[in-house]
Amino acid sequence: MPSSLSVLRRAANAPRWVAVVLAVTVVASIVVVAGHRHLAPTPAADAAPAPSAPAAVVRREPVASRDLDRTADREVEQRVRPSIPVVRKPIPTVPVASSDAAETVAAAEASTYNVPGQCLGWAREQADIPSRYSTAATAWDHATGRHPHDLTPPKGAAVYWTGGSAGAGHVAISVGHGRVRSSDAGGSGVVATISVRKLTRDWHLTYVGWADSINGYRIQGVART
Q1: Which domains does the chain have, with CATH numbers?
Q2: What CA–CA distance (Å, rounded) separates 167 from 205?
Q3: pLDDT tens digit sequence for 113-147
Q4: Integer Cα distance of 102 and 155 in angstroms
Q5: Which partner from 7, 40, 65, 128 sits 20 to 30 angstroms from 92, CA to CA?
Q6: For residue 147, which of 160, 163, 162 has the smallest C-alpha distance?
Q7: pTM of the full predicted structure?
Q8: pLDDT given for residue 165 in this prediction
């Protein structure tokens, strides 16, 4: 097979028209190749993008409110919880004396004599109250409706002192205006009317106040006047 050098030498020695034909042939080949490349399809990168798949729709279930849950729980608890009966404690009642305040005052003012040293026995008898405590000081400790240190006891009230030689205290019946009807106030065994302040001072006792009861019995009608 002839070499490329020998071909070139022959072409150089060939007539001119042969050279022209060869040149035209070469140019035509170049044009055909260039046109073929221009008409070739564009790469896949220029192609239109394929449609994407639709996004999945996520459905969220509504979340119940915690407050509603608590309310529902309370309603169920209230329906299930058994009703508890209300037990009311009985209100303690105080026995009532046979005589009211006015009758007690009338009896005390009519009384003129007493067993010496028996103030509690004399005072309770004016209101028709039975015996219970041994001393006036003990009766004050258990009295109801107490008004400590009030120097103006109402009519019919039991007026109390503590102290004395044996610590038994003293009790009298108020007749109003700061005065009492008291046993031994006119002397031993003599009932008399005396002011609260004078009896406290002269007998060297401690005034503790007045109450609407003696020995646990309430004297009706005793009120502040």
Answers
A1: 101-218 (3.90.1720.10)
A2: 9
A3: 999 999 999 999 999 999 999 999 999 999 999 99
A4: 7
A5: 128
A6: 160
A7: 0.60
A8: 83
